Amino acid sequence: MAAYRLFGAETSPYSLKVRSALRYKGLAFDWVSRSASNEAEFRKSAATPTVPLLLSPNHAPAQDSTLILAALNAAHPEPEAVPEEPACAALALILEDYGDEWLNKCMFQQRWGQQPDRDAAALRVLIQLNDGKRPRAFKAPAKQIASRMLARLPLVGAEPDNAPTLESSYRRFALRLNTHLQSHLFLFGGRPSAADFAIAAQFQQMLTDPTPAIWLKDRAPFVVAWCEHMEDPKPSGGYQPLEELSATLLPIFEGEVSRTYLPWTFANAASASREKKRFSVTLDDGLFEQATQAYAARAFASVRADVAARMGDPALPAFLDAAGALTYFQQ
Questions:
Q1: What is the 3-state secondary structure (H, E, C) of the chain?
Q2: pLDDT in tens, 114-133
Q3: Do 91 and 249 form a contact (C-beta atoms < 8 A)?
């Protein structure tokens, strides 16, 4: 048996994020697709009913993908997964959170907020839960899954009123990322970072959903190729200095990250600190309103602390200022 055991699902972006990182590190692990047949085993170690769940002989069970990646980097430094330059390391953390907390909304809305994506995804989930086999009577349980996930849209902020903003956001980001990946194998050069693992996992999910898959394959072919590479990424050279990345990395931040994710997560954090149930924020595409997300607020607080610790690198505040993002990281 391998040292690591990963309970996950092909329909879970966070499962793919961790699986890709394990493969990149060259670590032996057993992939356990969560299903009815192993549910009892899963629940013995899981603190929450969601995947991923990473088990290892030397560490407590872990389910937070961001903390899992950080722990893997600490335990297995090679190959590197954190850029050497403090500025790039900080930007990677910002982009990781963007993928986990904002791009996930876009993915969720595309999958469960429209047809034919919702029915196709519900059937995939049902087959996974049934140990990879489609049950004979599948229509009713698949419809139940679709209805349950449709009801969850407001919980993640992917409700109908926000759908146009989320759709334009992921497309804007994908186009800028596509331009960046024309000249760079990964986001920060010749090897992946937490940002690559997080963002690729969300787009890998979109590529299994009919509507966004058609758009991505037509408009963002370099993103599609990168997603395929991120299934089992291999290092090819070192990280590049920020000055060599800025020409195409800055537009990603200035044109998207600073216009959607940062004002949203800043407003969400403020709402959480005041213990409000809902909040709204005005983005370039209009008013965005949703339920306050406590986990996202804690995640952003961690990112802000990490970014602050790297502000001694003058390239970081200069980049953030040029991107219109500095104000979100000033104490």
A1: CCCEEEEECCCCHHHHHHHHHHHHCCCCEEEEECCHHHHHHHHHHCCCCCCCEEEECCEEEECCHHHHHHHHHHHCCCCCCCCCCHHHHHHHHHHHHHHHHHHHHHHHHHHHCCCCHHHHHHHHHHHHHCCCCCCCCCHHHHHHHHHHHHHCHHHHCCCHHHHHHHHHHHHHHHHHHHHHHCCCCECCECCCCHHHHHHHHHHHHHCCCHHHHHHHHHHCHHHHHHHHHCCCCCCCCCECCHHHHHHHHHHHHHHHHCCCHHHHHHHHHHHHHCCCCEEEEEECCEEEEEECCHHHHHHHHHHHHHHHHCCCCCHHHHHHHHCCCHHHHCC
A2: 999 999 999 999 999 999 99
A3: yes
Domains of the chain with CATH codes: 4-75 (3.40.30.10), 86-111+157-329 (no CATH), 117-155 (no CATH)
Residue 158: pLDDT above 90?
yes
User: What is the structure's pLDDT at 159?
Assistant: 94
* Among candidate residues 103, 102, 122, the one with its CA nearest the CA of residue 111: 122
Instruction: Count CB neighbours of 14 within 10 A.
Output: 24
Structure tokens at 151: 């009801």
The pLDDT assigned to 1 comes to 63
Per-residue pLDDT tens over the stretch 43-57: 999 999 999 999 998
Q: What is the pLDDT of residue 58?
A: 87
Residue 192 C-alpha from the chain's centroid: 14
Determine the average pLDDT of the residues in 319-327: 98
The structure's pTM equals 0.98
Per-residue pLDDT tens over the stretch 206-228:
999 999 999 999 999 999 999 99
